[in-house]
Design a protein that fits this description.
InterPro entries: Ald_Fedxn_OxRdtase_N, Ald_Fedxn_OxRdtase_N_sf, W-dependent_AOR
Helix content: 10-25%
Pfam family, one: AFOR_N
Protein name: Aldehyde ferredoxin oxidoreductase N-terminal domain-containing protein
CATH architecture: 4-Layer Sandwich
CATH superfamily: Aldehyde ferredoxin oxidoreductase, N-terminal domain
CATH topology: Aldehyde Ferredoxin Oxidoreductase,  A, domain 1
Strand content: 15-25%
Strand order of the largest sheet: 1-2
Number of domains: 1
GO molecular function, one term: iron-sulfur cluster binding
Order of helices and strands: HEEHHEE
Length: about 120
């Protein structure tokens, strides 16, 4: 057991923090905080971006948000394994409400390896 722990510690020493982000919980209004977290792995950059009002007015959240943001960030030439491909994690406005079963879902939206589409 001690040998495994020392291997873990040695592995941990070789890691470094590439980026960090100070998170302030936002005010939740009708299930929304009107913001999203954007992480760029190529530039090691983390930033908070607003949810665009037309997106909020058109989609309820989750899958709709993800598809809209993917559609508007990748080009028609982007392949599933391109660095420009987005991986979008989206939740809906009732995510985490414990009174209703199934509300803990997260949608993951990206270009598919098998079809090359969403």
């Amino acid at each position: 057991m001690e040998e495994n722990w020392s291997m873990f510690e040695a592995s941990k020493e070789n890691k470094k923090i590439l980026a960090s982000f100070e998170f302030e919980p936002g005010k939740v209004e009708k299930g929304y905080t009107d913001r999203r977290l954007y992480i760029n792995l190529l530039k090691n950059k983390i930033e908070e971006k607003p949810i665009d009002l037309p997106v909020k007015e058109t989609f309820t959240g989750g899958r709709g948000y993800g598809i809209w943001y993917l559609w508007n960030t990748v080009s028609s030439n982007t392949k599933w394994n391109d660095p420009e491909n987005e991986i979008i994690f989206c939740t809906g406005p009732i995510c985490g409400v414990t009174q209703y079963s199934g509300t803990g879902k997260t949608h993951i939206v990206t270009l598919s390896l098998e079809t090359g589409t969403v």
